[in-house]
Amino acid sequence: ASGCTPVCNVFTDLSNAVDGTMSGWEWSFPGGIPSSSTLQNPGNVCYNSPGTYGVTLTVTNSFGCKDTLTINPMINAYPWPNADFCVVPEKASATDPVFTFCDLWTPNPGVTQWYWDFGDGSPIDSINTDPVHSYSATVTGNDFYIYNVCLYVKNQYGCWDTICKTVEILPEFTFYIPNAFTPNGDPTNELFFGKGRGIKEYDIWL
Known about the structure:
Number of strands: 16
Helix content: under 10%
Largest sheet: 5 strands, mixed
Shape: rod-shaped
């Protein structure tokens, strides 16, 4: 049996007695849970740690004669990769919603396939390990936005791991108000007012 940990396998005795009848069974499962059994059919044995494991069965007939069979390897338990990534900056402004991502997945066993889901409906990126992504297509206003970015990685054994992180986009706030104006009838600086970006309302009082 082979697979990503934990690997569980059902063991069944197929021994035959040439003389007499079968009367005893001794199973050894190094690295398995349970690690041994005296049942004819011990059932399910699980291997939680990555590695290659052998299995030994010793059978005894009614005359006390024994025979032993060892199969090694019989179980291949493969490790999972560990998905992780960094993102710079942690928060971006709505006027420049661009993030740089970098892979931090475990190098051993090596990741052979990956894809990035940026959470904004854009195509999946399965080419770049350190992509740069802009949210300008969906950030249509100077407001708050949160996107869930997920990275999926697979190693050479076909074992997958996933991690998701959020990126935040914040509105850009600027405000300018003059310190003087000239209401003298010419077309210049006749009105006193503030202006900026991300401002919904403001009050002026003397």
